[in-house]
Amino acid sequence: MHFAKKIAIWGAIIFVFYFILSHHFIIIDNSIKLLKKSTLSLNYTIFSTKAKIAENILEIDVLRRDGIGDLLVKNGKLGRKKLKKILESYDEYDDEEEY
After folding, report:
1. Residues 6+ apart with CB under 8 A from 26
2. Domain count of the fold of the chain
3. pLDDT tens readout for residues 13-37
4. For residue 19, what are the domain limits?
5. Of the given ranges (15-29, 46-60, 78-92), which has the lowest mean pLDDT?
6. Which of 41, 39, 40, 44 is CA-nearest to residue 24?
7. How is the beta sheet containing 46-48 ordered, strand by strand?
């Protein structure tokens, strides 16, 4: 029984660490929203939108590629048309980087 308890504790620790590595915790107003990361990392694990302009948030490649724009639209921080316009400019920039 003692061995099973250790395995369960280690399993829980590993799960929590994996969950933290695989999600962004985005603070919008007084709530925390989860955003799935495209890769496991600690980059921008906790990110607050307080006192930040939506356009500046979308300049962060990691967050933009993981879909923070849709999260900003859902929470009324950005309009759908403006998001589309901003993302189009980054799509062109990303295509040029490949060359």
Report:
1. 32, 33, 34, 35, 47, 48, 49, 68, 71
2. 1
3. 999 999 999 999 999 989 999 999 9
4. 2-98
5. 78-92
6. 44
7. 31-36, 23-28, 46-48
